[in-house]
Every structure is written in C-alpha cells, then in structure tokens.
Amino acid sequence: MTMALALGRRGLGRCWPNPAVGCVIVREGRVVGRGWTQPGGRPHAETEALLQAGEAARGATAYVTLEPCSHHGQTPPCAKALIDAGVHRVVAAVGDSDGRVAGRGFAMLRDAGVAVSTGVLADEAACDLEGFFLRTEQGRPFVTLKLAASLDGRIATATGESQWITGPQARRVVHAMRARHDAVMVGGGTARADDPSLTVRGLGMDHQPVRIVVSRRIDLPLLGQLARTARDVPVWIAHGHDADPALIETWQGLGARLISCDPDGAQLSPRALLQALGQAGLTQVFCEGGGGLAASLLASDLVDELAMFSAGLALGAEGYPAIGAMGVEALADAARFTLREEHRIGPDLLSLWGRAL
Known about the structure:
Layout: H1 2-8, E1 22-27, E2 30-36, H2 45-53, E3 61-66, H3 78-84, E4 89-94, H4 104-111, E5 115-118, H5 122-128, H6 130-138, E6 142-149, E7 154-156, H7 168-179, E8 183-187, H8 188-194, E9 210-214, H9 225-228, E10 235-240, H10 245-254, E11 257-261, E12 263-264, E13 267-268, H11 270-279, E14 284-287, H12 291-299, E15 305-310, E16 320-321, E17 337-345, E18 348-355
Parallel strand pairs: 3-4, 4-5, 6-14, 6-15, 8-9, 8-14, 9-10, 10-11
Antiparallel strand pairs: 1-2, 1-3, 7-16, 12-13, 15-18, 17-18
Helix pairs in contact: 3-4
C-alpha cells in the first residue's frame, strides 16, 4: 500500500476532477502491475495496473488507495475490470464518499467472490485524497494558503518592494508545491502589484496548474503576463456580478475563463468563490495571497493548510502585512492551526500548519 500511495501522488494536480489514486497488483509476492490516475482523470489507476499485469492479474491481490469505482462514466467501472481480470483479493485504503460509489464498489467485488480488506494506511490515503473528499462532500476544493513573510509578518516594504523576501531554495519549493495542486490563486491586488506568471518553472515539467485571479471588478493589467499567456496556460478570473461586460468580453477574447461569484460586501464571497471552483472540477487550490484574500479565506474558516515561509529579516510596522484586517477582537475567535512539520529551506524556515484539532 505504501507503493500504491506513492504512485497515486504522481497524479496530484494533474487528474482533477478525479481523485489521484494508485494501484499495485501483486501475485505470489511479486509486483506484476502498477498504475496511477492519468492526466485528465483517465485511464484510472486500476486500469493502468491491470494493463501492465495482463494475465498475471488472475489470482493476484490488488492494492488500491481508494475504493474502486462501480458506476459507468466515460470509462467502465474499475470494480468490474478487477473482477473480469480474475483478481482474487482487493486491499483498499479508504472508501469513496462519492454517492455514485460509496460502498457499491466493495459490494460489487464481494458479490463476485473477490475478498476485500479495507483500512490499510487509511490516514495517509485520506490526507492525499482530502481535496477530492472535500469537493465530493462539501462542493469545494482543499485550500492551501502559502505566505512568504519577514520575521514580523510583512510581505513587502512600505514602498511595495517584495521581490525577494525568501531565498531561491524556498522559491523552488514553492514551484514544487504549485505543481501538486490543480490551481494557483491570487487576489487582484497581487496580480496588479507583482505581475506574476504563476507558472511552475525550473522543474523540467510541461504540466501547468490553472491560474486564478480573484478580482471583483476585473481591474487587471491587460498587457501583463497573465493576459499575454492566457491562451498558453489556463487563466480563470473570478469576478462580481457588477463587473464591466466589456472587460469580461476582452478577457474572454484573450483566452481567459470568467467565473461570476456572489459578493460579500466590497469583496467576493469566499464561500461562493470556492463553491464555483468546486463546480468547475478543482479539488486542490494553492493560494498565494495577497493579504486581503488571505484574510477573507481565514475569516471564513476556508483554509485547510497553511504553508508559512519565514525569512530572517524585519521590515517594521510600515510594511505590508501578510494577512489583511480580519476584525478579530477576542483570541477565542482567532483562526488557529496545529503545527505539523518544520523544514529549514536554505536560509528560510517552512512551517506547515493544519486545522487545529
């Protein structure tokens, strides 16, 4: 199962809206087939592993990180494929919460005489598949909020200078984190101030995540990097119902996808935003700020993981804060997280925080 989990992670950021699943087929103590969910969500992991195993799958055991699907979609059910291949036993990490499966895959296997075991390395699998489960159960993607700040929590000087607070090693790690997510998201202020490309660079890969900009009025540079490359790498713009129709048409002409969201005061509703992204198929979103977007997600309890890069410098109170105003008056109302991991990245420190237990 450890091997199946490692294989499944190869699909992270590439197979949405489907889950990133891994499968290993073993016969007489020898691995005869391996597979993981392919780009775009198909073929599924079981199909890939069975193709590699061929006749060796008959009488074998299949280790799979998620309950095999039981419904007919664009491909036949994986549970039936395992049955037809003559697999003797299936060991699964976790069940599928998708209403089209939700135990039916296991039932199909057992009805056909296939032995089924579940719960092997379930916690690890649930962590890897959390975005898929969130979208299935709550209609929204998993959100990782990345902040790169000085020791005193600033992301730019008083003049707006922000490149670069962290070192090159930390920036390389950020690119690897982008690659494991379906989309990279920033607020309109960040897009205007930094003119970011939001692409994965320096890792020798051609896959790119979707680039999302949250801008209620679409007041974004039409000559910036995002506008110039919208036809090459997907750009989605989340905007309000009151956005200028001419700007909507212009960005659509540049190749961007426009997503209309409900407002929440002067900003877009964070919940409406994430619901819209979930409906579009996204399971994991990597948010890189700025401060206003970070604050709205935190205040709405929509941050599932916080990745904090801390650099060894101080910019003072006049610098731009990493997180905007949240209106917190009591400590009991503050967003709290539990430290999961710490890593030294060159001269910087990366701390990974999860939801408080």
